[in-house]
Task: structure prediction
Amino acid sequence: MAEEAVLGFLEKNEEIKDSGEFAVEKGISHEEIVNVIKSLNGFRFVDAQDIKKERWQLTAEGKTYAANGSPEFQLLMAVPPEGISRVELQKKLGDSVFKIGCQQAIKNKWVEVGKSQVSRKVAHVDDSVKDMLVKINNGEAPNKEDIDALKRRKLISPQVWKGYSVKKGPNYAPKRRKPATDLTRENLQSGEWKDLQFKEYNFLAKGFPIEGGYLHPLLKVRRQMQMIFLQMGFEEMPTNNYVESSFWNFDALFQPQQHPARDSHDTFFLKEPSTTKTLPEDYVERVKQIHESGGHGSRGYGYDWKREEANKNLLRTHTTAVSSRMLYALAKKPFEAKRYYSIDRVFRNEAVDRTHLAEFHQIEGLICDRGLSLGDLQGVLHDFFSRLGMSKLRFKPAYNPYTEPSMEIFGYHEGLKKWVEVGNSGMFRPEMLLPMGLPEDVTVIAWGLSLERPTMILYGIDNIRDLFGHKVDLGLIKSNPICRIGL
Ligand code: PHE
Result:
């Protein structure tokens, strides 16, 4: 409607002189008219020139005087012919009107103010201040001196009004047709394309920001861990099989078959295929032996070891299953010292809460050499964790079926100002290493930790489900920092 009004008016008239007056005439809001003028001007349908007008509006104080009279006039009206005491007059008028009224009325020589008494000097006056305020309020333009006087008293303030004067532009047409943005099959078939006006290309448009290419915090911390292992001379173990047999996951690690971790409450067993096809038979025999009756100075567990239990397939519950395969492979060749690491996924049949998932990642490191001691383990752990920014470590005795001694690792977190548990470690038992065929003087020191825990500490995430799984917030993945230094 506003657009038709503007274009229609210009069809018969030279110019719209003032968009404000035009809006009033047409009964359309000025804002709407202005928007249409801007748009038509952009497409050169019209030629618009700015007009700015300075107008005056009453301040809140000015408004009360326009209604009730100026304070000096109110004051004079309150002074009876015989005069009045200051105290009484102030009570009648209130503090503000009395104070301002006194100042102005004295200046105008309307009253005389003594120590205690106020008396009139004139019988009658006009309230010119009120008259001016009323006129300004009605849109009349006052003269310059009056404006200055009222401005000084902060009774009026300037207001800039913006509008346009409008003439026909080079592309003027009485009606605007929306330019087409696409050449379509329909308008090619109908022949309509010949008359269409096409919108020009904007080669400077920025286009949509490119999506994708964001690294998950777990990938970034994994990379950091990998770099530390590589700098320390470790080789990566192949962890590309999630499905493992109970044999490699538990039995080879001297974990007895009645151990609670082997229960389906803690472990996901496979239905299909439910059992493994092949195991190295001579080694299986030695493992059975060590479980049942011991050897190499051990008494074993003294129970009936069952092959069916070892055959059961499962989702590996720790990457130590891979370590056991690697050490067995190492034992088959002439002995060579090794440093191995892995970072990959493991599965536990656990109730999910803010710190636990049924699927998470383990970081695992091991060193296999002649004559390693617990001191070597502590030294390597100091080296490893100080590269992560944690140089204060404490160890607490712990228990794993496959390590002796075993230690939980605590690190002092400088940011959180407290000791946090950072991992588990130990020296692999002879009951695990000797049946594999490793030489008697070879010891293996090893440790493991989760990847999620340090990532949560580094990125300040307190619910593991925000980090991994189907409830992950993609916004977090896109907006997290490129890297975080120190643990
Ligand atoms: N496998 C252990 C775990 O799952 C970690 C560990 C690895 C402990 C190596 C000792 C030695 O917690």
Q: What stands out?
A: The pocket of phenylalanine is lined by residues 318, 320, 364, 400, 403, 424-426, 446-448 (CB under 6 Å). DSSP finds 20 helices and 15 strands in the chain.
